[in-house]
Write a structure and sequence with these properties.
alpha+beta; DNA polymerase, domain 1; hpI Integrase, Chain A; 3 domains; three-stranded antiparallel sheet; elongated
């Protein structure tokens, strides 16, 4: 354990090792006696945390706790969900990464929320990021202690709106100009059935009933959504039938909107039926 001042500095710092990690922090005081007492208190707090007398989590930096949490969650998370958690951590790590998780307090999270708002992040996005931080702290038995001091940001429920005929026409025109032949029929199906992106991307021909003009959704976002039957209106069905005519040798297990491969000139379209679009 040591007390020191940086050259030219007036406040005291303390430094010691605990749990295989170096703890070096400013005591924020010009008094060496107060700095010594602050150092002793800091080490005592860590010892109480380590021995379960105060906080049950080991004194580890957020970066370490985040890596451990990701390793545990990866087998149970969908690929897209895992990517979202990693994206959230890209914002969390620069702020909390080097901080010991046992030291994170409600006021720190509130400050983070305000800073992200200044950066023009949406309340919903910020709430998702705090949700990831909450999951990490909860795994380490620390969230319950600061939960009363944390408030999620209010989000709007009236953001969604119907697409106007003009907007729909502009969207279809843009799709028609795309090199991807599947973009226009896929967007048409989405607008007329309200199917989710993943449902359309993973749709197979065996889910399309040409006799009843219905689509049975496969794996969906929720258990309730999986296996539901969606009736297809005449407009979307005409586009779907036209799209099907491009695949006379299609098999039930083939994807409706397969991955596409182009030649060097950009005019040679080759579908890969067993590989869905990304």
């Amino acid at each position: 354990m040591a007390l020191f001042r940086y050259p030219g500095g007036k406040t005291w710092w303390y430094e010691f090792h605990f749990g295989g990690q170096k703890v070096r922090e400013s005591a924020k005081t010009r008094s060496i006696e107060i700095a010594r007492r602050a150092q002793n208190k800091r080490r005592r707090d860590l010892e109480e945390s380590y021995n379960g007398l105060k906080k049950r989590a080991l004194p580890k930096p957020l970066n370490v706790a985040a890596d451990e949490w990701l390793a545990i969650k990866k087998p149970t998370l969908a690929e897209r969900s895992y990517a979202i958690e990693e994206a959230n951590l890209k914002h969390i790590r620069p702020v909390f990464g080097k901080q010991l998780i046992s030291d994170i307090e409600g006021k720190d999270i509130s400050r983070y929320q305000q800073e992200r708002l200044v950066e023009k992040a949406s309340p919903k996005t910020i709430n998702l990021e705090i949700g990831t931080l909450r999951a990490i702290l909860r795994r380490n038995r620390l969230w319950a202690e600061i939960q009363p001091d944390v408030r999620m940001l209010a989000t709007r429920d009236d953001i969604g709106r119907a697409v106007s005929p003009e907007e729909e026409g502009a969207l279809f025109a843009s799709c028609a100009q795309s090199r991807s032949r599947s973009l226009l029929p896929a967007v048409t199906l989405a607008l007329n059935t309200c199917m989710r992106y993943s449902e359309i991307r993973l749709l197979r021909w065996q889910q399309v009933d040409f006799s009843t003009h219905e689509i049975t959704v496969g794996k969906s976002k929720s258990d309730a959504g999986t296996g539901r039957v969606i009736p297809v209106n005449a407009r979307a069905w005409a586009v779907l039938e036209f799209w099907a005519s491009n695949f006379p040798d299609r098999k039930p297990a083939h994807y409706v909107f397969p991955s596409e491969r182009y030649g060097a000139a950009g005019d040679d379209f080759t579908p890969i039926p067993y590989q869905h679009r990304r």
